[in-house]
C-alpha cells in the first residue's frame, strides 16, 4: 500500500505543477529569444545557441539548481522545484 501511495503522490504532484511550469517556462524562453534585453540577469544575450539549448533543457528537466551558473536562468524561482522534488524523493 505504501508504494502505491508514493507513486500516486508523485504522479499527482507532477501533474499539478509541471504543466503550468512548462508553459510559463516556454513562454519565458520565447520572450528571451525574441527580446534578449528582457533577461533580468543579463546573460541570455551572451549565450551561444548550444548554451541556450542547455539552459532550456536544464529548466525543463527541473535540474538547473544542480548547476550554480544556471540557477537563476529562465524563471528564477524555478530552482526551488529542483530542491522540492529532491526532498520528496529522499523522504520516501
Task: Kindly describe this structure.
The protein is mainly alpha-helical and 92 residues long. It has one domain (2-91). Helices cover 63% and strands 0% of the residues. The protein has three helices and no strands. The longest helix has 33 residues, at 2-34. It is elongated and about 50 Å long. 11% of the residues are buried.
Short description:
This protein is an all-alpha fold and 92 residues long.
% residues in beta strands: under 5%
Tally of separate domains: 1
Low-confidence stretches: none
Content-based structural category: mainly alpha
Topology as a string of helices (H) and strands (E): HHH
How many helices? The count is 3
The pLDDT mean sits at 89
Overall strand count: 0
State the helical fraction: 55-70%
CA radius of gyration is 15 Å
Can you summarize the main beta sheet?
none
- End-to-end separation in angstroms reads 13 Å
- Shape descriptor: elongated
List the defining traits of the structure above.
single chain, 92 residues, mainly alpha
Give the arrangement of secondary structure elements.
Layout: H1 2-34, H2 49-60, H3 79-91
